[in-house]
């Protein structure tokens, strides 16, 4: 089966790679508009496929994973809305800058497509549309691979929505490929094809994603990984109690997502607020647990998803140090009425998103930029970081024009 699976993945990847030159901003806009309409027209088929996936997974997935897998009517409508909004967003500005050298050479820095890009993601079917939409918008093709729990839903989204929309816009349907197998070997093959898939977006648990990133590196494939999350809220010395409680509640509206409240830090000077905060957590059905490390992400802990870590700190500096050094670096927020303290917190936290009196749940491409994301990159290296959207999915190219007289 592995040989057959490799042939399948290579075929999908090669077809996507070959489709890239056909992609244009205008045709992609039409394809995304049509895809939004098809989500509406085929919502019953999407719901039926998703029900099959949810029923099959009910006894083996935890509550948080099932929540990520489930597409109810509201979430299906959100898919349509995101595609429609993505369609009307301005295309990527291709020229970054330009100048003329003293010798007369004209230099332009251009943003060019990457090509075909792979994407491996957990049992979260809306990611299929988010990732494929972003890649198409940036004039890249996509090859998707999801966990077996979401395969029926993702197959329906690809075959009944994305590919028909591409075809009706005059584009190759193969611009969005799919690994049509639940075998985990499919993910390993996806990261082993540098000639046709030079970049693979990885979303999932830290351990699985880290292993795939190492595998990709061995094959010369680059990765954009969204492996770990967990929001931090620091209740500062000058925090308003009602505002702090509102932030906690707003940060826990969903438990199976990466940007939910994971670590609650309370300043010693605000310790009198702790009983009220603990009472609120209890009312919300959230357990307070002592993890192995403060940054342990409860959303990825099947047995303890409805948990938060609570820790008292001696100062703002200690809170920032913990957020920087003991968490994933996804997002951290400060609750305070002291503007100077807020500015110090925002200036010294190094994660991808920093908040003042706002919940970390807004660490999301669509919420912050109006464009769905392929994932949230927490790497501490140059390149796209934080929510990655179509505006980040390009390569830099220098274009130089002369008149034949220039020389070194």
Principal-axis shape: globular
Report the average pLDDT across residues.
Answer: 94
Total DSSP E strands: 16
Low-confidence stretches: none
What share of the residues lie within helices?
40-55%
Structure summary:
It contains 14 helices and 16 strands.
Structural topology:
Blueprint: H1 2-19, H2 25-41, H3 43-57, H4 63-69, H5 73-88, E1 95-100, E2 106-112, E3 116-121, H6 126-137, E4 141-146, H7 151-168, E5 176-178, H8 185-190, E6 199-203, H9 206-218, E7 222-226, E8 231-235, H10 241-250, E9 261-267, H11 274-283, E10 287-288, E11 307-313, H12 316-325, E12 331-335, H13 339-348, E13 353-356, H14 365-369, E14 375-377, E15 386-388, E16 395-401
Parallel strand pairs: 3-4, 3-6, 4-5, 6-7, 8-9, 8-12, 9-11, 10-11, 12-13
Antiparallel strand pairs: 1-2, 2-16, 14-15
Helix pairs in contact: 2-5, 2-7, 3-7, 5-6, 6-7, 10-11
